[in-house]
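Morning F.,

Quick status update on the modeling queue. The single chain you submitted on Monday has been processed. Sequence for confirmation:
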Amino acid sequence: MANEIKDQAGTIGVGNLGNVVKQLVKLQIEVVSIPFSLLPTDSRRYALDAVRQAFKAVRSIVDDVSDTIDTTLQHNIDRAE
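Structure tokens below.
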């Protein structure tokens, strides 16, 4: 129990980003699970477009975080040399 609390306390910053991503994925799954056959044609198209845009947004966020980490690591390596 103490180790679990310690692990959670050590990852508070990462956990917040993880929670945001988790909620976005959960929202996308909820939207996708709507029976599209029950929706009118225009609503179906708008819903699918919204899901696509949400996936693109998550991908963009992950790419930006990855680029920031790479840049920071490269800067620290260059500074250490």
